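User: what does the whole thing look like in 3D?
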Amino acid sequence: MSGLRVAGRGRKARRTFRHGAGNGLETGRQIRFTFDGKSYLGHPGDTLASALLANGVRLLGRSFKYHRPRGLLSAGPEEPNALVELRQGAAREPNTRATIAEIFDGLVASSQNRWPGLALDVLGINGFFSPVFTAGFYYKTFMWPASFWEKVYEPLIRRAAGLGRAADAADPDRYEKITAFCDVLVVGAGPAGLSAALAAAESGVQVILCEQDALPGGRLRGERTLIDGRPGWMWAQDAHRRLAGMTNVRIMTRSCVFARYDGGTYGVLERVFDHLPAPREGQPRQRMWRVVAEHCVVATGGIERPIVFPNNDRPGIMLAASVRTYLHRFGVIPGHRAVVYTNNSDGLRTVADLHHAGVRVVAIVEAGTSTAAQDLARQTGAVLFSGATIANTFGRLGVTAAVIRDAHGREHRVGCDLIAVSGGWSPDIALTTHQGARPVYRDDLAAFVPAQGAGGSDLHVVGVAAGVMTDRGAFESGLRAGYLTSGADGSGKMRLPDVNDAAYDITPVWQGPGTGNLPRAGKAFVDFQNDVTARDIRLAAQEGFQSVEHLKRYTTLCMATDQGKTANVNALAMLADITGRSVSETGTTLIRPPVQPVALGALAGAHRGRHFRPFRLPPTHRWAEEQGAVFAENGLWLRAQWYPRPGETHWLETVNREVETVRNRVGFCDVSTLGKIDLQGPDVRVFLDRLYVNGWQKLPVGRARYGLMLREDGFVFDDGTTARLGENHYVMTTTTAKAASVMQHLEFCHQCLWPELDVQFISVTDEWAQIAVAGPNSRDVMRQIVDPDFDLSNAAFGFMAAADVTVCGGLRARLFRLSFSGELAYEIAVPARYGDALARRLMQAGAPYGIAPYGTEALGVMRIEKGHPAGAELNGQTTAHDLGMGRLLSGRKDFIGRRMADRAALRDPARPTLVGLKPLRVDAPLVCGAHLLPKGAAATAASDQGWIASSAWSPTVGSWIGLGFLQNGPARLGDVVAVHNPLAGTVTEAVVVSPVFVDPQGERLHG
Amino acid sequence: MRLTCPHCGSRGLEEFSYRGDATVQRPALEAPEEDWVAYVYLRDNPCGAHRELWYHGAGCRAWLVVERDTLTHVVHNVRAVCREETP
Ligand SMILES: [Zn+2]
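Assistant: Here's the predicted 3D structure for the full assembly of 1094 residues, as structure tokens:
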């Protein structure tokens, strides 16, 4: 086929691009897929890139800013150009690299960033407007008038510069997360990584081997390297098989180690079912691994660089090693008439390989002068240009000719449909820099390598990633690291296979002549994905952006989804050149995680939608559902808000009825969500004294007491009641919201401040179901519940009493006479699993007394009626004085917050203090957050005197009521203040009253 | 990041919560107000070696003193606070 004429005008010859088997292909089977609506055939093992190339498709996309026609630059994950959309509808995935997307039967793929079609893209005209898009264009456009930006440039840039389209429906697939531990994590299954894994595994340690590709072998798949006399990829397959048979080895393919974190923690993205139409039943599409490893062997190989020359981005201009990968792994001929352009010895391999595959190599362009090139030219009949460069290329939708400038400056136009370019290899060092270790520049390799000991003593970089450029060196460094990490002395056992030991040498040439100057010859691309040109770099340097960090941000160099994998070193070398510094002096930016783009879905795992966070369900939840309760989220808890009855048409009607039930008969409410902490030990009393502002020395067994806690800065932290159940046994309740932080606070105080106190405590929030039973009939109901030998009379079990009791015929329980509603009330606690049964029993036993359940809304109304502070009042900015509880502060002991609460400013009576508020018109709602102003004052910050914290319609008072904070509040009872709601723009009036609206003497709860 | 809890072994960051400087000492009640203000509000932010308090809330609930380098993130030592000798 090498005799075919190339790119004949007019009639196109039908040609094949598949020349042989390909070591990664199953040629016996065919797969049908579509690209931009056209159907093609490929084989299992093909990537979208190789399959399209095999079908002669070279144009795969349009570039980001200039809409230039682009094809494949590479054959791997470093690909900057060939970004495509895969799948359709909800499963549509934009910006996928065609070079890593494995094809499957029925795959639908399409190009992006083109309109109306790839071959005819009207926005290609951006090339003519290109001054708009030069270095710093984002920053410069921001300096234009805002109206220009909004109306003209922003829409223009958004339409013109773009990537793919995200799916417009929820992702139908599942993702999951998993954690794994191992002794040695090996990253990369090329010759170095496989050697390391074998050495470590044979020593018996636990090994995880991750390979981002579907197949092991790394570069061995793309070369004709012989190992022990056989093709290298066969050696890799054997090594892989041996490892797979070992019980201490886990091999993960299609798994990219995308980050190294502190403490030997790694992020790994496993693409479990990206290569099939849909995940298998019950399986995730992708799996996010967190791997914790004692040691990590980085065998990530290298990334080949292009060379920067005018019009170096045409389809058909590819990286040389990628050309070899397409030849050997996929059996695809990327072109029929090739020019090979290289500045290093490795690139020359391409000449022999293309020739071997029957491709005519018309010219070899080498930056230096080598005998190897002379030999190759002789063998293949190619014309050799030593000390030469490519000065330009031609071809609208694919390269048709190259202009070669020889050592004497003469230009030669050569027809070709493939230019294989090698600018040398950059070790893939991303994982070694994630924790801030700076790589060092090696002049002999013209590349950055990890610094000695970079990233920590547990990180072992081997093979090309470490700057070891020979095949033999890859095996040697891999084996050595493998033995080292396993702690075994393998020096005696180390057996190196028989491989070629050819040296790698490079002539550091980064760009063709004149590429950074006038755009006469055409754009010379450095960063293909972000369309950053050599001229942009020169311009940025001229404008003063000479630090690499500034250059990067000003030009958007290396800021695309590929993070500039193929662009970084070329750009630095060019900047060094312009500024007259060495590459070492110029420095490099650090590479941050992730190494490859990671889907948000994979990061979220199962935590989406309903599962974003779990619900905590109180013990009576199922029963409440049966009652038709309406639920609301309280932190993680799902609590019954109210219990509508047939015929009730508005929630307020239900809540009013529930409040009236409690005030006149009896109601009950699940209060299990309150934090409960069980404390035991001889020093609990002292401990409580130091935690709460009030005193605990005189609390007798069988009694409970209200307590207020401060933070050490003197502001209120939490409140609740603590009951003394035995000589050395107490049970504390906290608010629902602060249950966890109070527990943490207690642990801190005990372990860090007063370890000498003999106390033990544990959270029992989940162990006890606690139900409040409130209302004038509550004692009658409790008599039906509590076993009859217990005396419930007011004399025997009065207000704030507490006791261990039995209920319902022998069930152990705790009974407290506490009241949040202000009525005669009890709280009864039973083991959590009996909570549901207790609710049902209460309904039954309480029926004759008119019992009904009530929800959090009625609970809230009644606590406002009683002036009890809750979340809105305990907001972290109020003091005990602000809450009208200054008298609780004991002067006889040290307690958390005492000293700072004593600061004069916090005791200033002018601070807004808790008051009750009643609108002058009873049906005028009070709105939480409204400002309190002197009557008639202007609504300014200067005249602001407080705010409304909580409000409700009180069916008991027959009016809206509120709790608020008002300057000098307690001294202003009876005053009328203005209530200003700036959101609604309203001003109403309210009278300042005591915060206790109902039963101010507390007669009911003592009854 | 991982911490090796003296009770539970090596555990992931998500099991712990951070409090801050472990070197501050709660003053006596009668100490001058400046001491209290310093204790409650003032913290150094050293670049390098630091002693920090961490809480193993999702594990043994121990408060831990972690000696950590804020620059390199290397953890040098983790002890339970109640096992600390007070200087
Ligand atoms: Zn622990």
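In plain terms: The first strand of chain B starts at residue 2 and ends at 5. The domain at 2-85 of chain B is CATH 3.30.2270.10 (Folate-binding fold).
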